[in-house]
Amino acid sequence: MRLALPAVGTVARLIRLPAGDTLARLNDRYWLRASMLVWLGVAIWFFWDRWPYIYWLALRDTDDNMRLMQVRALLSGQGWYDLTNYRLNPPQGFNIHWSRIVDLPIAGLILFFRLFTSNWWAERLAAGIAPLIPLSVVIGALGFTVRRLVGAFSWPLMIAMLLLSSGPAILMFYPMRIDHHGWQLAALTLTVAGLADDRRVRGGAIIGASSAFSLAIGLEMLPYCAMAGAILTLRWIWDRDDARRLLVYALTLGGGVAIGFAGFASYANRAMRCDALTPVYLATVTLSAALLFVLAWVNPRARLIRLTLAVLAGAAIAAAFAAAFPQCLGRPEGASPELYRVWLDNVREAKPIYEHPLRNIVRIATLPVIGLIGAIVATVVAWRRGRFMLWLPAALFTAFACAMLLWQVRAGPAAELLALPGATALAWIVIPWLVTRRGWMPKVVGAGVGAAILAAVFAGVLLGWFRVDPMNEYHRVVNRANARCASYSRLKQLDRLPPQVIFTHVDLGPRLVTVTHHDAVAGPYHRNGPAILDVHHAFEGTPERAHRIMKRHHATLLLVCPNMSETTVYRASAPDGFYARLSHDKVPGWLTPVELPKDSPFRAWRIR
Fold this sequence. Notes:
This protein is mostly helical. It has helices at 7-15, 21-49, 51-55, 62-75, 103-114, 119-129, 132-149, 155-164, 168-171, 181-196, 200-217, 222-238, 243-264, 279-298, 303-324, 337-342, 358-384, 388-404, 412-436, 440-457, 459-466, 473-485, 488-492, 509-515, 529-540, 543-552, 565-573, 578-583; strands at residues 84-85, 94-95, 501-503, 519-520, 557-560, 591-594, 603-607. The strands form two sheets. It has a five-stranded mixed beta sheet with strand order 4-3-5-7-6. The chain has a two-stranded antiparallel sheet with strand order 1-2. The radius of gyration is 26 Å and the shape is globular. The protein starts with 6 loop residues before the first helix and ends with a strand.
């Protein structure tokens, strides 16, 4: 036990088991197996509950569709280091900044299921199962963390909070969510487990390896990896005996990043780009690891000297990065100012949380705030018991994750997962107090804290009851159009037409090429920037300009989805543009209508 000494006896009385050594030994021996049984049950339930999505290959996110296209290309013989998608912007295609790491489990599952069934079924089963695999890592890693920080019997409470949070985090592990975010979140929870591990060598190795693994997948978690390194350095500054943890971390981080680059960096990622694990970050991370290794090896006795050396090392790393890679001092995408203006700055996930509707703010931020409060309370308790460094790393990581929400709302899933140890600790302190104390004051305080925890857990349900900032009719129309135009059955109707290059919306491109035999011009990826701008220029410009752009891309069919969210941008930015004219049935003479089924949400024209 870490935080509440009466908790073992309380839990034992509640579940009618004998407290003491027998229960503790059973828990220590079988908690991981039990948590994996819980994961298996959850996985079966998710698979059954999402079966309609699996059957209809409902890959709603563009990244999920593009991931499946990348796996298909690999299984069709495309080169390991060639991540060009030739179905978008043909014939040259475009390169994406991902790696092959996340392709491996999906491809392996497809090959396995091909032994028993058709490729049609193999893809669906693989896409349904693959996202559930990193969920097992999350449950195991967070269970390990709360057992070290909160209490040996606290892991079931943590799992309950994880599964009932109804927030963005658990959605990342639903069947069909085959993009890379689930694996990166799993790596993040391993990093937290390494910070909580009292075995220094093992903890440092876990943090270094998980950070390297995450960076080899993509740079989305780079700030968290940097924060983990900073926390480890602060621990070493405070406690000289933590040098072994820092030394092992430096070795595994530097070696892991080198292995990740050699094994998974695509041909395009061997250039000096700033948006993936390229030579830019390979050099920066290995330099950082080397300096940390030297600091841990020297390991001065005076705390002030350790602090001074750490500050000098950080300054040297920053100066070297700025001098060697000045092109990476700004935003990592390296896109043109126009692309930022017309597209990247309008991506909802890239906006801070306070620019979102209130219902989204409540749903995303409630659990992280509760977790931060719990982490602070637990840190104070640990301080009073002389174990300050037990909880401080977790509290710092939780506070950092909450601050990241003020930068981009896409940090929500990470913030929720990092909040679980703090939320579990808060409940773990309150429950024994409620059960063992007498009098009305503990009951009132405990009830208030319990209500706050329940609000965090059931934020999504409460929003449905109280209708906070309800969605208006306009947003319902847009959401309905987004869903109908991504529908497998309605897109598949387009296969009645001969294969060709279709000029359509940027956000529809990946889904179109995944479901149909047609090619598209653009997808929402910054390395596809020129094609993205061409689509915007066509829909927002004059009909004559649109015609020239479409012919340059060898497009023979124009496909639009009325009221799709992307079309609202066209109408707002260019009220007299080509798309606005189309929406008012002002069709130029070089377009010939194409008849589609009556239930089709699309409108199509042959480009003459």
